[in-house]
Amino acid sequence: GKKDIMKIECPIDFMDLDILGFIDHNITVNIIKNSAIVDKKALHLPHEIRNVIHCKNPRCITNLEANCEHIFRMSSSKKYRCIYCNQEIITRQ
Questions:
Q1: Residue 71 and residue 42: Cα distance in Å, rounded?
Q2: SS3 content of the chain, % helix, strand, coil (to 5)
Q3: Contact, 93 vs 22, CB < 8 A?
Q4: What are the tens digits of pLDDT across the range 68-92?
Q5: For the chain, counts of helices (H) and of strands (E)
Q6: d(CA 80, CA 21)
Q7: In the list 24, 29, 36, 88, which could disulfide-bond 41, CB 3.0-4.6 Å?
Q8: Which residues are paired to 33 by β-bridges?
Q9: Alpha-carbon distance values, 11 to 7, 8, 15, 33 (Å)
């Protein structure tokens, strides 16, 4: 029953809405121009997340190599797994 408002002043093309969808997949983004809502976007859980969360496995290549991207993909059980070591992370659903 509560709403939060974030004002972001930049073109929507520069925003990575997948990050917001990962934080909460029930978010609706309203695009406002000239004080009027011109578009609404309902977000969902992204299939892949890059460099947003880090693998907790101490033996994972992402923790051993400095320039390795942290990439997680959604598994069939709607949980994210590291593509390198298959470590699962817990998400809110």
A1: 24
A2: 15, 25, 60
A3: no
A4: 999 999 987 778 999 999 999 876 5
A5: 2, 6
A6: 13
A7: 29
A8: 36
A9: 12, 9, 7, 11
16 has pLDDT over 70:
yes
32, amino acid identity: I
- pTM here is 0.71
Write the DSSP string, 7-20.
---S-GGG--HHHH
Confidence tier at 66 by pLDDT (50, 70, 90): confident
Residue 81 tokens, joined: 């797994």
Contact 19, 8 (CB under 8 A): no
Residue 6 scores a pLDDT above 80: no
C-alpha distance from residue 83 to each of 65, 73, 86 (Å): 15, 7, 6
Pairing of strands 88-89, 36-42: unpaired
